[in-house]
Amino acid sequence: MDNYGILSLAPALIAVILAFITREALFSILCGVLVGLLITGQDLLFGFTGIIQSALGNADFIWVIGIEVFIGIMVAFFQKSGAIEAVANKLNEKLHITPRIAQIMGAALGVLVFFSDYFSPLFVGNVMRPITDKAKVSREKLAWLCDCTSAPVCITLPFTSWGVYVAGLVVGFGTFATAEAGQDAVIHSIPFQLYGILTIVMIFLVALGFLPDYGPMKKAEERARTTGKVVADGSTPMLSRELDNIKPKEGFKSNIILHFLIPALIVIAVTIGTYVIMGSAKTLEAFVLAVVYQAIVLLIQKAFNIREMIQVATEGIKSVVSAMLILSLAYCINAISKTLGTSNYVISVTESWMTPVTLLALTFAVCAFMSFFTGTSWGVYAIMIPIAMPLAFNMAGGEATNLVYATIAAVMGGGCFGDHCSPLSDTTILSSLGAGSDHVDHVKTQMPYALTVAVITCIGYIIIGICL
């Protein structure tokens, strides 16, 4: 059986619905995993322990968890040195930080840190959090800015890991015989990357005040402005209160260059440098080196001794435990969805609808649907490109026309939608973590914005399909 029919949607659907009802992401995703085990006929105890081992016992998961661990330590060391507070105070001295300026800064910083969808939300969130807090910008808004400037930015640039990955996937279809041809195809798809482009346009329109907030985000912003509460009552920020207890040693004077700029530059330089030299951004290694640098500097300056350093690092790791647990269960539910054949089911009920006019819009919609319910974009790309490319080339008469390039963009944009706003997505979780936002609150406030862009994107692809 390649899929379980409509039941294959049940785990993800239950997880999403319960998350909105209970506001407890961890409990909701766990329920989704257990439902998936029941559908496949597995014993709950042994099936659960088995899925943990199979879903989490791989290099990809360990890599992401490693990044989260060192991000937690890095932020804890920032707290111990007083670096983030010093940066916020310096900016407040030089600039009159209004809510609008804080949002523009967050959006601009996210676009500049374009090279990694994992690094970007964590870096932007941690740098901007004290600034947006003082400007009374809600954590939900900061998480949205972090999320919108991660995956959506990555799909609009051909030289990111996303572009390189898709370039490899399209090789062998139609006229794309080599890796260079695949890269060229991704470059030609950029003008048709409606979802990524429109998302970036939207964040700046909102940040600049040209587009007013609406839906749950409007309520969150009104709460932050009027009460100063950047986090809603009863919410659980992804950064726990362990970090609040970390204070600089009495009399210790923070140096912005030593304690903030150099660690940040180490991360950026190593990530970009390894991408240029090795063709792969070594994000984890970048964070490890930055943390080692911080530890050495703070030890030399007697900000803490070795025992205190371990205690601070441990508190930093504790602060990201909730994110690590949610991410772990997200990987489990993604593995269950794969076993149930969720992607195969979606394809089976949609591929017969394809026509030259509707190809782009339906490709985007199918990829968006699949990625939202599986929480993965790259897996959707691997499944949908072998289906969409032959269809596009067939309708284009075997030539690499704009219809083919637009189809590549539709696949990438649709996959990005799910990666961008699914509560099961790793980058959505990392955005909540970086911003220190309640995860369900982030998903709930972001959803109307993401759906707005998705609907406009679908309409745009219908128009392009008619014109082409």
From TrEMBL:
The membrane topology noted for this protein in its Swiss-Prot or TrEMBL record is: Multi-pass membrane protein
Sequence intervals crossing the membrane? 6-22, 29-55, 61-79, 100-119, 192-211, 256-278, 284-304, 316-336, 356-373, 447-467
Q: Where in the cell is it found?
A: Cell membrane
- The Na+/H+ antiporter NhaC-like C-terminal domain covers 154-466
Q: Which UniProt keywords apply?
A: Cell membrane, Membrane, Transmembrane, Transmembrane helix
GO CC annotation, single: plasma membrane
Q: Return the Pfam families for the record.
A: Na_H_antiporter
Could you confirm whether the keyword Cell membrane appears in this record?
A: yes
Signal peptide, first to last residue = none
Q: Which domain of life is it from?
A: Bacteria
What this protein is called in its record is Sodium:proton antiporter
| Annotated organism of origin | Vescimonas coprocola
